[in-house]
Design goal:
The structure holds two protein chains of two kinds. By secondary structure, chain A is of the alpha+beta class. Chain A folds into three domains: 2-336 and 347-365, no CATH class; 393-517 and 639-654 and 672-677, no CATH class; 519-637, no CATH class. Chain A is built from 22 helices and ten strands. Chain A has helices spanning 2-29, 32-61, 68-73, 80-83, 91-112, 121-141, 171-181, 183-195, 203-231, 242-267, 271-292, 309-330, 346-378, 386-406, 417-440, 446-475, 480-490, 492-517, 634-652, 657-662, 665-668, 673-677; strands spanning 519-525, 530-533, 536-547, 552-562, 565-570, 573-577, 582-586, 588-593, 607-618, 624-632. In chain A, strand 3 and strand 4 form a beta hairpin. The two termini of chain A are 52 Å apart. In chain A, 58% of the residues are buried. In chain B, 57% of the residues lie in helices and 0% in strands. Chain B has helices at 3-28, 49-61, 78-93, 97-108, 123-149, 163-181. In chain B, helix 2 packs across helix 3. Classes of the chains: A alpha+beta, B mainly alpha.
């Protein structure tokens, strides 16, 4: 298997080099044949990499410990399921995964790229394959996943215990695919720039691929948060760790981009700015790779001190100069078609949106870099962690939420204050009434109250518009449901976007709830003793344990009472892995539902608060140390995931060809301004 | 505010609060954590909530010295358990937050603080973001003013490609836009829209 893997890697390298050089030479010489053959060999590079991944996975599944990487990241004791995904548990394998998934995504991107990008395609292929060649060179020279083991004792070291979690099947692949995927919209734009197709020919390709990558990245981040919540044992899900930060920065810029690209699509403005955003995002993703692979910061996530960090730093600097050169070269031909007509317009709203997202990005980057500055300039090690980020980024994020309520109500081009007021009166009134009611009900955390009020503002703005749109459809003779659906399908990008905004609202409820209202206690209990936190009484019953080759597992069996009624029996788990000298925990989470739906598992009921229990230590004297916490609204964090996938799918779903070509909105739904209104973006 | 608007405000608020309020009512109705059944507590005595709150807030502001970037509340290794105990003892003795932080800084260095202090060189951490955002706002306003004046000027035809291609695509883009603008405004807030909710 090792030979097959190595050969596939070398073959992929040769194909990618040929594809990259051949397509450019073909474009210069005007040789369609050469371009076509380059294009096909870029596909074959993807196939060869898929074979290499297959070889490594197979080596894991069959416990081929003659390969060093397999020996170092698996053993016979771990469950068979995890051997299928162990390939990305370490530096070399994850790099192989990144290379393969990137090349396969590139393959799809090149394959579906629109015909109007024909002149740019060779350059797009060249940029994509250039990145593949870089990764492959690192793989072949510095991080060979197929290198033979120094010795083969028939046993592996095993995989890091923190990675033995269902999240392992889905978080790393999505996260890594999303982070390398940002290169695809960038390549569309940069390739078009190089070919001189500066008049928006690249727009749809970049926009659609950006939204797709954004969805993958968002899902990756959210699932990562859920994983952290259940396994890190402190009831949190996001700690502004450097690796989390470098993953979220490209996401932030990408989010800015998928908003501002709408302005270019609709109004022919912000061209320069959008290319600049894509370039920033691409360079930030490279920065993330560098920090991740042996960068100079400490983190729970990093792959340990590997020597290849400097190579990634070099590639990042190269990317920066490349993007900058392309941008400066073509900037003169990226002028806007028309001026900004008013500060009170959706264009201006999107500009402010971009400004705020870049603000969060800048703050986050500064937080990651400051400890390094401090060490060089002041010779003092400092930590920049959650309290700092919460204080600085919190207000900007709040501003984003408020803008999310106002911005969509602003029309393109210009509007007048009275018409803005007409649309904003109800949402703002609802927001203020909500704040007042929350305050009266006894919650006096100012920021939480403002936050909840702002979220209600956004929600009511969306509902207001949906209400009006649906009522218009109703007058045309549809019922509520089909009226709503007709309105949505009349303008999928817009209403898909609203659904994503609703997902953000759910996320916001969870973030505010857990940040401001969490309660926790660390207690040591002897069997039979109990502890009361808020209205829950947690009684420790006993411990059960199990010894395996690789770990010693212990469960703390607890009963949970609310009043006199027992509401749950839970068994949070802790295991010690002697080989790694690491303990891993799995929290027991009881969701106390807001609405108990009969016949539905309790964790699917709309959530009020999580009772979260982790055994942090089993003491010699038979007592157990439990971390008990109440995490209000944590359920809303996870429910945002499905909502936001639905929204993205609706936004991306292609309109039927007929609609796209001829825009016969007026004929389809006669006489209702609302229906027509919702036909554009 | 017209009657219609009023009614809609009230009903929407009610709808939203139906979801939000029970959630908040719960979080706000926190009684004291029970002391009726006093267990052995590892970390500090659980006298009153206020005390625990202060202690826990300190836990989030201090870093475990041996774990990569984890605050005390996130970490369960021996040293951070000890630190949690020490900070509670000190709180009990009447030390204030700053004194306790200073104590740990003297022991483990500045990096034990989860956020750099707002003094000396470290003040830079705190002032750069607001300055950056401030400068950003100024730049944003200048750019927006310029865009508004239409400084973009006529489209630079012919740059970066044969003039014909560029002009043609301009023309096609114009046609596209005309096609789109053929429909009445699709915006909320246009005065012409007879408000559908009426």
């Amino acid at each position: 298997m090792a030979d097959l893997g190595t050969m596939s890697l070398l073959l992929a390298l040769a194909l990618a080099v040929y594809a990259g050089i051949g397509s450019v030479v073909g474009a210069r010489l005007g040789s369609g044949d050469l371009i076509m053959s380059s294009r096909r060999s870029s596909y074959m590079a993807g196939v060869a990499l898929a074979v290499a991944v297959g070889a490594l996975v197979w080596a894991f599944v069959t416990h081929d410990f003659s390969i060093e990487y397999v020996r170092g990241h698996s053993d016979r004791a771990q469950s068979q399921a995890f051997t299928w995904v162990a390939m990305y548990a370490g530096n070399e394998g994850s790099l192989l995964y990144i290379t393969a998934i990137f090349t396969i995504m590139s393959m799809v991107a090149i394959y579906v790229s629109p015909r109007r990008l024909e002149p740019s395609r060779p350059y797009i292929i060249a940029i994509l394959m250039g990145i593949t060649v870089f990764f492959l060179t690192v793989l072949v020279t510095l991080a060979d996943p197929f290198a033979p083991a120094a010795f083969d004792d028939g046993r592996g070291v095993g995989v890091n215990p923190l990675l033995r979690h269902p999240g392992m099947f889905i978080h790393p692949p999505l996260q890594m695919a999303g982070l390398v995927g940002v290169a695809i919209p960038f390549s569309f734009a940069a390739g078009a720039m190089i070919a001189g197709q500066t008049r928006d020919q690249w727009l749809d390709a970049a926009r659609i691929s950006a939204i797709a990558v954004w969805a993958v990245l968002s899902a990756g981040l959210l699932i990562g948060a859920w994983w952290a919540y259940t396994i890190l044992g402190w009831g949190g899900y996001w700690s502004w760790d450097p690796i989390e930060n470098v993953a979220v920065m490209p996401w932030l810029v990408l989010t800015a981009f998928i908003h501002s690209i709408m302005v270019q699509k609709r109004r022919g403005m912000f061209r320069m700015w959008n290319v600049a955003l894509l370039s920033m995002m691409f360079v930030l993703a490279q920065f993330g790779l560098f920090i991740n692979r042996g960068g100079p910061v400490v983190s729970v996530h990093s792959f340990g001190a590997s020597t290849i960090g400097s190579v990634f730093l070099g590639f990042m600097i190269f990317s920066l100069f490349f993007a900058l050169a392309v941008f400066l070269w073509r900037a003169p031909s990226l002028k806007s078609d028309r001026p900004l007509e008013s500060f009170l317009s959706r264009e201006a709203g999107f500009l402010v949106n971009n400004f705020l997202f870049l603000g969060v990005t800048f703050v986050t980057l500064w937080g990651v870099l400051f400890p390094l500055f401090s060490e060089f300039a002041n010779d003092e090690t400092v930590t920049v962690s959650a309290p700092w980020y919460n204080q600085i980024n919190g207000p900007i994020l709040l501003a984003i939420v408020i803008l999310m309520g106002i911005g969509p109500l602003l029309p393109w081009r210009r509007t007048t204050m009275p018409s803005v007021q007409r649309w904003l009166t109800i949402p703002i009134a609802i927001g203020l009434v909500t704040m007042a009611l929350i305050w009266i009900s006894g919650v006096h955390e100012m920021w939480a109250v403002i936050g909840f009020g702002s979220l209600t503002l956004v929600m009511s703005a969306v509902l207001e518009e949906w209400y009006r749109g649906t009522m218009a459809q109703r007058r045309a003779g549809h019922n509520f449901a089909s009226g709503w659906w007709r309105m949505v399908s009349g303008n999928r990008p817009r209403h898909g976007g609203y659904i994503v905004h609703i997902a953000i609202i759910a996320l916001g409820i969870g973030v505010i709830g857990t940040n401001f209202f969490q309660q926790r206690a660390d207690v040591a209990l002897a069997p039979g003793e109990s502890f009361t936190l808020d209205e829950y009484r947690v009684e420790y019953v006993d411990t059960s344990n199990e010894e395996r080759v690789d770990r010693i597992s212990e469960w703390a069996n607890v009963n949970v009472f609310k009043g006199d009624e027992q509401i749950a029996s839970l068994a949070p788990w802790r295991a010690f892995y002697p080989v790694f000298n690491i303990a891993s925990v799995r929290a027991a989470v009881h969701n106390n539902p807001l609405v108990d739906i009969p016949g539905v598992p309790h964790y699917l009921d709309p959530g009020l608060e999580d009772l979260y229990i982790v055994p942090s230590e089993f003491l010699e004297d038979g007592r157990v140390v439990l971390r008990i916490s109440i995490n209000p609204a944590a359920w809303w964090l996870w429910v945002s995931g499905p909502i936001f996938i639905i929204g993205t799918v609706i936004a991306l779903w292609p309109a039927p060809a007929l609609e796209r070509r001829t825009v016969p909105a007026r004929r389809r739904v006669p006489s209702t301004p609302q229906a027509v209104r919702s036909a554009g973006v | 505010m017209s009657y219609n608007v009023f009614i809609r405000t009230i009903s929407l608020t009610a709808l939203l609060l139906a979801v939000a309020l029970p959630l908040l009512g719960q979080t706000s109705a926190h009684a004291q954590s029970g002391t009726d059944d006093p267990p052995a507590i590892t970390i500090g005595p659980d006298q009153d909530r206020e005390f625990e709150k202060r202690a826990q807030s300190l836990e989030t502001q201090l870093i475990c010295p041996i774990c990569p970037g984890e605050t005390l509340d996130q970490s369960f290794v021996q040293i951070s358990q000890d630190m949690k105990r020490i900070l509670r003892e000190k709180l009990q003795e009447g030390d204030d937050e700053q004194e306790i932080k200073d104590f740990f800084v003297a022991r483990y260095g500045t990096s034990v603080l989860a956020a750099p202090p707002r003094t000396g060189f470290n003040l830079v951490t705190w002032v750069v973001p607001p300055i950056g955002v401030g400068v950003g706002i100024v730049v944003l306003l200048i750019v927006m003013r310029q865009m508004k004046r239409g400084s973009a000027g006529p489209v630079a035809a012919g740059v970066g490609g044969p003039a014909t291609e560029s002009e043609l695509s301009d023309y096609l883009a114009e046609v596209d836009r005309d096609l789109l603008s053929d429909q009445p405004s699709d915006e909320p807030g246009e005065p012409e829209n007879r408000s559908a909710g009426d």
